[in-house]
Amino acid sequence: MKLLVVEDEAKLADYLKKGLTEEGFVVDVARNGVDGLHLAAEGDYDLVLLDGMLPGIDGLAVLAALRQSQQTPVLMLTARSQVEDRVKGLQAGADDYLVKPFAFSELLARIQALLRRGRPSQTPTEATILKLSDLELDLIRRKAMRAGKRLELTAKEFNLLSLLLRRAGEVLSRTELAEQVWDMNFDSETNVVEVAVRRLRTKLDQPFDRPLLHTVRGMGYVLEAREP
Q: 125-223 is classed in which CATH architecture?
């Protein structure tokens, strides 16, 4: 799932991106209100983490602008602990409010709770369950099942499978996989994608009769249910 962090404190923003990426999320970061509003308006995010005090446009103004066009869940992060400040944020359209400093475990729990609600235009199944043939991916519970059997995946393997499943039938290049899953510019000397795909295929396909993850020579990889 894709998150946007709008936070001007560089150390905290980097900490959040690292921790949430390790949990399997795809994370973009904006350092000010102007960039945050632009990304939130243009990107297809499942949730926005929004600092209350930002340069350019403050968090409440960003939130108010977003609520004119979309209902993406927003979790406000702020150093303001006064009740009236929290009330203002919630009244402006925030879905939850977390006061700094906070424990990462609590932040993660609040994110998961908000994601479980889904977007108003989606049913919970549409929002959180991906399926292909006998493969099922639960994005909230972080579970992958095939033919009723649990697949024990690492966070990166889960993220890789999630991307492939979201775009099932589409050939994804090594460059795109590296950018989307590892947030890195692809280096031809790096075999991180090939290694990850090989390990995922061992868990996803080898125990079963019908492979789903296919290599397209010279182009990349595709997840699809092909006829025998």
A: Orthogonal Bundle (1.10)
